Amino acid sequence: MSKFNHLFAPLLAITALLGPAVSPAPAQQAASAPLEARPALWKLADHDTTIYLFGTVHILPKGVNWFNGPVEYAFNHSDLLVTELPDITPVDFMKGMAKYGVLPAGQSLRAKLGEERRGRYEAALAGLGQRPEMFDRNRPWVPATLIPLLTIQKVGYDPAFGVETVLDGKAKARKIVRAGLETIDFQFGLLGGQSEEQQIEYLDTVIKGVPEMQETIAQMVTLWSAGDEAGLAAMLNAEQEPEFAEMMLYARNRAWARWIENRMAQPGTVFIAVGAGHLGGTKSVGDLLTKGGFRLTRVQ
Predict the structure, then answer these.
(1) Is 180 helix (H, G, I), strand (E, B) or coil?
(2) Tens of pLDDT along 69-102?
């Protein structure tokens, strides 16, 4: 399995957020995906509190039917929707990009890449129908997160069909409360906080993984649709780079598990929807909660 695969799910969490910032080339073909999906859903409950944990895919093709059965029931009986981020406005987005995503005046991204890396980078953008200067004013992490989005949008994937986007619309229709486990400042700061050399290496890894991105997300969606959280965790955790895994997965999992533990002290019914890669396998949110003495029941 490629080194890129374990980066893909964390990338999608942020690419879904960044989606409005780019205009993809027209889709060349429809993405293939199961029409009926039964993704994993867990329940954590005591005498006056119920928390549902739902693993998501942040970007999907049209026509994947996952909002039914236990997932639909759990959501419709919850009074709070919690996702990785709260409802983000364009102003929030622009402030985050200005703070973390823009190079100092007079600097150019392509000038920092070196001849070999710049050649791969420009070829990748050309293959996506984008101008080579598209991200010249951006720090390296920005194209590193947007290139995967552009790549899979060409074959029919769209953040508009992602689980969080759909749930957000349903939450607004029901007029229930929305909350986020993190902030846009925190998420942008994760990648923007890396050194410039780390970001450039990260970008180059993404570029090298472009040819397999379509196959990678198709595998992810297939495992997710089947509710195979163990298989999905194994796929995403293969060849993990310890520093990146700690930053993008494990530290966040610990923080989210603490949030859930604290929320269990308050009455009510909560529907938590976060990337499926955070809920399966060792050091996942579910694993941490179980080791902390909580009982999780698989309801789908």
Answers:
(1) strand
(2) 999 999 999 999 999 999 888 888 889 999 999 9
Rounded CA separation 220/233 (Å): 10
Can you spell out the DSSP letters for 247-291? IIIIHHHHHHHHHHHHHTTS-EEEEEEEEGGGTSSTTSHHHHHHH
* Tokens linked to 295: 């009982």
Structure tokens at 201: 């290496």
Number of folded domains that form the chain:
1
Q: Write out the two tokens for 251.
A: 């530290």
Domain that holds residue 153: 5-298
Among positive and negative, which fits the CA dihedral 198, 203, 206, 211? negative
* Local structure of 65: helix, strand or coil: strand
pTM summary value: 0.91
**Residue 203 C-alpha from the chain's centroid:** 17
Structure tokens at 52: 């549902």
Predicted confidence at residue 235, as pLDDT, reads 84
Q: Which residues have a Cβ under 8 Å from the Cβ of 107 and sit 6 or more positions away? A: none
Q: Are 132 and 5 in contact (CB under 8 A)?
A: no
